[in-house]
Design goal:
The chain is an all-alpha fold. It contains five helices and no strands. The radius of gyration is 42 Å and the shape is rod-shaped. The termini are far apart. The mean pLDDT is about 75.
Length: about 150
């Protein structure tokens, strides 16, 4: 009887090699899962960021539109109030000692000609208008730009 030599199987006869291959397999699976989780997190964050920016832009646009509408309504109301006085014969027939109508029209004029609506300068502006303009400027709130702290 002859002795049959069997070829040794590397995987079956070497238990250390099998454990080593299964360890690599688990590390590879863990690596793919980690890459998948990070990729999903990154793309969901980018989507959230894009959607949030769109929502904030829509909100700001809506607020701006509402403010514009409020300003138009306010201006229309003020012009309506002024037209009541302008068209009222009792109010327009009052004889003031000063030229009130011209003073009202010139209340935005400046001595250097930078005012409006007619850009009068110097002597063209009524004398009393200087007082009205200075008094109006004294009661305006100071508008200073606040810069954020860095």
């Amino acid at each position: 009887m002859g002795i049959i030599k069997r070829k040794k199987s590397l995987t079956a006869d070497t238990p250390g090699r099998t454990e080593q291959l299964s360890g690599y397999f688990y590390v590879l699976i863990l690596l793919f899962l980690t890459i998948g989780i990070v990729a999903i997190g990154y793309f969901s964050y980018r989507t959230y960021q894009h959607n949030y920016r769109d929502q904030v832009e829509r909100n700001i646009s809506t607020i701006a539109d509402q403010k514009v509408d409020e300003l138009v309504d306010w201006r229309t109301e003020r012009l309506g109030d002024a037209s009541i006085f302008f068209k009222n014969p009792v109010f327009t027939s009052i004889d003031f000692s000063w030229p009130i109508a011209e003073m009202v029209l010139q209340h935005h004029e400046r001595m250097n000609g930078s005012g409006y609506p007619q850009r009068f300068k110097g002597e063209d502006i009524l004398y009393d208008q200087d007082v009205v303009s200075a008094e109006r400027k004294a009661h305006e709130p100071k508008r200073t730009r606040q810069h954020p702290a860095r």
